[in-house]
Request: fold
Amino acid sequence: MAPVNDDSTDPGPDPAAAHPLPDDIAAVAPAGRPSRPPAIALGALAVVLAFGAGIGVGRVTAPGGGAVASPSLAVASPGASPGTSAGPGPSPTGIAALPSEGNRLGRADAKVVVEYWADYQCPFCARFAQQVLPQLLSRIEDGTVAVVHRDYAFLGEESLDAAVAVRCAGREARYWAMHDAVYAGQVGENQGAFARPRLAQIAAAVGLDATAFAACMDEREPLVDVLDDTSAGVRAGIESTPTTDVNGNRFLGVPDMPAFLATIDAAAAGATPAPLPTAQPPADPWTGIATSAREAGDTTAPVTVELWMDYQATGSAVIANDLGPELRTRITAGDIRVVQRDLAALGEESVVAASAVRCVASQDGPTWFTHDVLAVSARGQGAGIYTPTSILRFGARLGLDVRALSDCMDDPAIASAVAAETAEGTAAGLTAGPVVIVRTASTEVARFSGQLDVAAITAAIDGAR
Reply:
């Protein structure tokens, strides 16, 4: 996607252009892959886990381009230093007197629902809020339209915190006031505009209780709400922000108002909904491979390969990057069955990562792809990579049920299962992962650990057939 340009003379970004990946992501992401939020690749998702910097690496798209209008409600004007305050002002969308509930602006029985997917750091999303929403006010007021703000928080840590802050404001029936104030307070991506102290200032400016707001910001529930929305966006095929859906019609960027309003009015008059675009399938190398939860291949295959994994162990990347393609070839040929086993010996993060794989399997998600991403994300013991929050972000990027994932990660039975399997491995003499064991029936024929030699492993597998 094209980079954001706030120059008012700019003719507008080309929505088909690709924005270069940041250096830390380009080093591990597949070459030539466009930078767009829902595109899934091992390298990009490894960076999400490793740096905890939000959901994705894409950029905003805004057909039509141009500068974001200077907001009338701002805690800081665009370009001001983070932390400065201009104080509250009138709402630019004039929503104070309109009916609302949570992220819905308008009546629950409105004839037409307008969903707009947005990131609070996206300047063109601010433009939508400040220039498009005011033109819908009369239709919202007469019950024709309800507008629903859907979180698609992909531009970084501050995107998540800003979205959580608006959700917290919703607890005090100030969702839309905070929505306007946050969009008005943009200063640039991940530059402190929506750091926690500044969000607290914005919250105070819209009249929120400081103690309740601070407590809410530290809760997992509103974060799960934001990530679950983002995940729904992935499943819906959202590729840029803002994206607006009206009666099956999808508008990318700031919409052309005559066409937008005509679509709304046609829907209100009873037009048949159009089919929305389908989501782009993920770039999962395990697609088409016979898998069942943490097992892959035919259960009657003559050879079983056990992968004993500690996802904090830096040698784990070899399993995904080098051994994985060899295993898939032999699974497809019917020669082997591959089984994931937990050897979570390096501490709590190892348990969290292993639990994540089991929880993805519990909702029939991409278990083997998850295994691979966690394997290539390893940075060693205690690196802070595998936390419940990073796993939930990762789940959102995969389009999983984030609420179910959160509940599963909190289930003590999952951690107990990881511990039991780890104890089984330890009893078998395994002290550190990754370990690859090759078996025929129940007989162990080869064991590999430490610096894995993929050629030696594949030779042992082929010799055991």
Observations:
- Residues 58-268 form a domain with the Glutaredoxin fold (CATH 3.40.30.10).
